[in-house]
Design a protein that fits this description.
Strand content: under 5%
Order of helices and strands: HHEEHHHHHHHEEH
Number of domains: 1
Radius of gyration: 19 Å
Strand order of the largest sheet: 1-2
Structural class: mainly alpha
């Protein structure tokens, strides 16, 4: 019971800090909208029609980019949430939490849930802009997206916590995160289709966990497939010549999340 209460308190603390930080809320929404406003119209003329969904509707670059920007928001927010571990260590709060009579694994789970909830909320808010981009969302697709966004956020937050638990300064965290986040984002297919890539680049995209988040989110938003069916080739990516379905992506992303949260719990357990 004490461990469950610790998870709840840490989760609630992270949500409360986010709600009180108005600048963070505004910037979290302004950045993806800026990407859509600048990259979308700027590149759509050159990219043209990316493909068509299972309903025969054409998909231009702005529509193609929209799911990638939502994933980008979740990715950046999840990593930012993990940064609070380094911040708490510098100000001594983490030490007080770790000496409390609760499992250290519960501290890691509480941080993961807090960061995941915040990131998911930001991603869900961006769904409200779908009508302005010509993307028709149904209640069924929104219901499928919410747990998918949470799974993405949980996996990435766990990755960030696993790294943050081993770092001592904000400077080192920013350096490591920039080294991880930007390649993960650019190699995920958020900005460009993953078909017809060079062999070495296809390998990197297949190893990138964010790829397995962008692909199903894009499938649901653009109705590229009736999951768990087959994705249309222009909108998906293949591993060994096989285009992955919605179910394959979710299984890989969930497995990655489980491994990361276990590593994060182990990292917290070895803290001094």
């Amino acid at each position: 019971m004490a461990n469950l209460r610790a998870i709840y308190i840490i989760w609630y603390r992270d949500l409360l800090r986010f709600w009180r930080d108005k600048v963070r809320i505004i910037s979290a929404l302004a950045q993806p909208l800026m990407f859509l406003a600048l990259l979308g119209p700027g590149l759509s003329a050159g990219m043209g029609i990316i493909g068509r969904n299972s309903m025969g509707e054409s998909i231009d670059y702005v529509k193609f980019l929209y799911p990638g920007i939502i994933t980008m928001t979740v990715l950046f927010s999840a990593m930012f949430s993990a940064m609070s571990v380094v911040w708490d260590r510098e100000f001594g709060f983490l030490k007080e939490v770790l000496v409390a009579p609760v499992s250290r694994g519960s501290v890691a789970i509480g941080k993961c849930l807090g960061g995941s909830t915040i990131s998911m909320i930001q991603g869900v808010i961006l769904l409200a802009f779908a009508p302005f981009l010509g993307v028709g969302l149904t209640w069924e697709s929104v219901a499928a997206l919410i747990p998918l966004l949470f799974l993405t956020a949980f996996s990435i937050t766990a990755l960030g916590l696993m790294v943050a638990a081993r770092l001592r300064t904000m400077e080192s965290f920013h350096m490591v995160m920039n080294f991880l986040v930007m390649p993960m984002f650019f190699l995920s297919g958020a900005l460009f289709p993953l078909n017809n890539l060079p062999g070495w680049l296809s390998v990197l995209t297949s190893l990138n966990p964010v790829t397995y988040a962008v692909n199903p989110i894009r499938q649901v938003i653009l109705k590229a497939t009736n999951f768990p069916g087959q994705v249309l080739p222009p909108l998906g990516f293949n591993v060994g010549g096989i285009y992955l379905s919605f179910t394959h992506d979710v299984v890989v992303l969930a497995a990655f999340g489980v491994v990361m949260v276990l590593l994060a719990m182990q990292a917290f357990s070895t803290q001094e």
